[in-house]
Amino acid sequence: MFDMTWTGRVRFGAGVSAQVGELLRSLGAERVVVVTDENMERLGTADRICAHLEAAEVHSCVFAGVEPEPSVETTDAVAELAREHDCQAVVGLGGGSCMDVAKAVSILITNQGSAAAYQGQGLVKVPGVPKVMIPTTAGTGSEVTSTAVLSRKGDGFKGSISDDRLRPDYSFLDPELTFTMPPKVTASTGMDALVHALEGYTGRQASPFSDLFAREALTRIGKWLRIATWNGKDLEARSEMLLASFYAGVTLANAGVGACHALAYPLGGSFGVGHGCCNALMLPYVVRYNVPARSDRYAQAAAWLGLGTEGWPDREAALACAEGLEDLVEDLSLPRKLSALKAGIEEKHFDALAEVALGMADFLENNPRPLDKKACIVLYKEAF
Ligand SMILES: [Fe+2]
């Protein structure tokens, strides 16, 4: 038995973001808020999207101040702006942070109070206004999922609003918008997508439905991530990676993630290391730890990633998967050791980091092999 969830409508292809105005107009929206960041403003992407909106007589107000680890406070401020301007729809333009804030703003326009009141599972009472996502990175999966991760400046708490009502209504996947991503962002967001697909495929909640998407994501990432990273203007590589991110997002939405995400989260929360970067770093160690529990699935993943292990015994192929991932991280010039991050992480922090990781109970329960605090600390030590 399995339960599958799908996303809203998705339009994919070079140049499709130009159609966003028409779509919003057809929904009857006359005023929308565009939620984005400084980068999109500086690169002129926000202006281009606003011009497409204006051409369809949809008026926009732009909030270009979303920060990398977006906060409840920022989200509340954007919701206030959207209410003041009587916005009837929300456009999330950028990476996962911008899309997460946009999704939360959509439900705050119609529900009272602060985003903090909705952090948790299924707390949203009234459906939000239509939300349209336009990702400009390829990896977070936020264009598909029904969660928004927000931190609180006051007490440093970082938690998700997780509710079906957060699921995007429309996503415009336009690979041309990912041309501007620098190599490091391409590499780290692409690795995040890889981890979504691999943790979903090897996790306890994997289903025949999520497996389909995991396979398609891993096959594409294995073939195209290096090319997209080092040849950013290659349209085919950018298209395949954007599609892979979408497929990995469907896997994530249906099958969840595992120990790699649990161990990566506190590195982002306490030391500000980028989400994809932490995941890429921790992944080979987590895979080696998990091999005894699901060598069959890691062996299959190795074949999909193009590691040439077809016909090998499962255990050897699964261990080759960990090695192949290390080579990939190296080829992408991402850090392979915590000590190389220059983020101030020291061995004395491992106990507290493991404590936070253990708090990510959903992730750990989905991991194929159980982890206790000692196992978390051992993995941090190996990765140091
Ligand atoms: Fe992730």
CATH architecture identity of the largest domain = Up-down Bundle
Bound molecules: fe (ii) ion
What percent of the residues sit in helical stretches (DSSP H or I)? 40-55%
Percent range for β-strand residues: 5-15%
CATH class of the largest domain: Mainly Alpha
Strand order of the largest sheet: 1-9-6-4-2-3
Strand and helix order = EHEHHEHEHEEEEEHHHHHHHHH
End-to-end distance, in Å? 40 Å
Number of helices: 14
Major sheet:
6 strands, parallel
Mean pLDDT: 96
Number of domains: 2
What is the alpha-carbon Rg in Å?
20 Å
CATH topology of the largest domain: Dehydroquinate synthase-like, alpha domain
Low-confidence segments: none
Shape: globular
Helix vs. strand class: alpha/beta
Domain Alcohol dehydrogenase iron-type/glycerol dehydrogenase GldA: 9-175
GO molecular function, one term: alcohol dehydrogenase (NAD+) activity
Domain Fe-containing alcohol dehydrogenase-like C-terminal: 186-384
Family: Belongs to the iron-containing alcohol dehydrogenase family.
